[in-house]
Amino acid sequence: MRNRTRQAAVTGPESPTSDGKSAPVFAPIFGPGPSPRTVKAADGNILSVPADWELLPPGDPGLTRRVKAAGSFWLVQESRGRKVFSRGLWANAQTIENLRRELEHERSTPAHAKKQAASTARRETAQANYVTEFQQAVVDFLAFDSRFHELAVAVARLVTQHATPVGSGTVARTQRLTIEQKARAAVVAWMRHQTTEYDQMKIARVKGRRREVRRDLAQQSLSLLAGYREGRAPQPHCLLMAAVENAGGQDQPYQR
Question: Do 56 and 102 touch, CB atoms closer than 8 A?
Fold first, then answer.
């Protein structure tokens, strides 16, 4: 198998097509190098960053987009487990400085402030709508007997509070699953920490073992939910009720 530097497709002015439109430019993606001003290619080679380049840290998407569109750059990413973290991008220092000043000027105008306020309002509305939709999806997944409807709502509220905040990185924020799938996964994850001994377990550092433990605990959680779906009286000291009550999620006594 050949070793190749990973590449990301971006659109920039230096990639015209025959019809005059911009086409993807493929920018190399590197890992952090072992010393300052170096990067590590996918094939293991260590490269020095051009002398007139500087690192633009992540955190300002607007500036980052403009720098990418302005010319050559190197993306730096670091993988940790299944997650990939941006470490910024290297690009011409003067280009970064010019674009930063240009953007700062634009952001200081009343028009920009008005635009940002409208954008914030749209995001907040979208988030509020998603929280409501997600909480209902959790209630639907729980599908408790009517005797335990209040408990279902309380569980759904707690799961939603944990899973839906923007930037939380939880399964509820992924775009790869339907909202029904996300609701199920979020309930199972919440119960794993709230109604099982998972957080106190000593799990062997063996490949696949943690996944196996989580799968077993998921079945345990689903079995607990089955009783409420079928309308059966909960067991004394029910862990689910205890978790809700400990979190302050009990508004009124539940049926027992």
Answer: no
pLDDT at 167: 86
Q: What would the pLDDT profile of 115-133 be if each residue is shown by its tens digit?
A: 999 999 999 999 999 999 9
Do 243 and 195 touch, CB atoms closer than 8 A? yes
Give dist(CA 31, CA 139) in Å, integer: 43
| pLDDT greater at residue 20 or residue 225 | 225
Across 198-206, average pLDDT: 91
Alpha helix ranges (H) inside 143-167: 149-163
- The mean predicted confidence, pLDDT, of the chain is 87
3-class secondary structure, 121: helix
Q: What is the DSSP secondary structure assignment for residue 196, as one 8-state letter? A: S
Crossing angle between the packed helical segments 239-246 and 209-229, to the nearest 10 degrees: 90
For 23-45, give one letter per residue: b (16+ CB within 10 A) or e.
eebebbbbbebeeeeebbbeeee
d(CA 163, CA 190): 9
